[in-house]
Design a protein that fits this description.
Number of strands: 10
Largest sheet: 6 strands, mixed
Number of helices: 7
CATH superfamily: P-loop containing nucleotide triphosphate hydrolases
Shape: globular
Radius of gyration: 17 Å
Helix content: 25-40%
Structural class: alpha/beta
Length: 225
């Protein structure tokens, strides 16, 4: 059974002659544990699609099902809670809280949900991502690659069903990009996470299990690696 699926997903901005079809009938299905890259040029609709998959924006029509739940059947507050528990986000700009240290950033989503972190699980993530020596550092004392590793740790700390990565290597040099993506792929296997990553970088996309290409709001090709 698919962990994530969409049916005829559409997002239209504006009306009449000025209407922009950012998504134009996207239907896709992603299996548990799969690492999928969604690739497309700027303006192709890939970021809009990721926002829909993560429940960050509501579609004009169509549905998104995450772990068996039609997420847009939920009201805003319930959707926020569902998103925090089921979906981890890794952003291009890291989105770390500057006044919190590395450990505090990692466990923040868990604490926002009123839960205690699973100490052994968190320690395993920290060790896997090579962050053991950086736990007391603030984000501005880390390199870009280290900050992105913290963002990955935060995304998987709450044991979500899906990780959504938005151009996760966009601010990194090529070697660091390869390192970060290698770690993302490693953690997905080790902690049974499903990953959907958007990128415009063909080389980075090759690390995924499957590539979906999107143009003008439509899926044009799907290929297994």
């Amino acid at each position: 059974m698919a962990i994530l699926s969409t049916t005829n997903l559409k997002k239209i901005y504006g009306n009449g002659e000025n209407a922009v079809h950012a998504l134009d009938g996207v239907t896709l299905s992603i299996e548990p544990g799969e690492f999928t890259a969604i690739i497309g040029t700027s303006g192709s609709g890939k970021s809009t699609l990721l926002h829909m998959l993560g429940g960050l924006d509501r579609p004009t029509s169509g549905s998104v099902t995450v772990d068996g739940k039609d997420i847009f059947s939920l009201k805003d507050e319930a959707l926020t809670i569902f998103r925090r528990r089921k979906i981890g986000f890794v952003f291009q700009n890291y989105n770390l809280v500057p006044v919190l240290n590395v450990y505090e950033n990692i466990v923040l989503p868990i604490q926002l949900d009123g839960n205690e972190p699973d100490a052994a699980y968190i320690d395993n993530i920290i060790e896997t991502l090579g962050l053991s020596e950086k736990l007391s550092n603030l984000p501005n004392n880390l390199s870009g690659g280290q900050q992105q590793r913290v963002a990955i740790a935060r995304a998987i700390a709450s044991k979500p069903a899906i990780i959504l990565a938005d151009e996760p290597t966009g601010n990194l040099d090529s070697k660091t990009s390869q390192d970060v993506l290698g770690l993302l792929k490693l953690t997905s296997k080790k902690f049974s996470q499903t990953i959907v990553m958007i990128t415009h970088n063909e080389e980075i996309a090759q690390l995924a299990d499957r590539i979906i290409r999107i143009e003008d709001g439509k899926i044009v090709t799907r290929e297994n690696m």
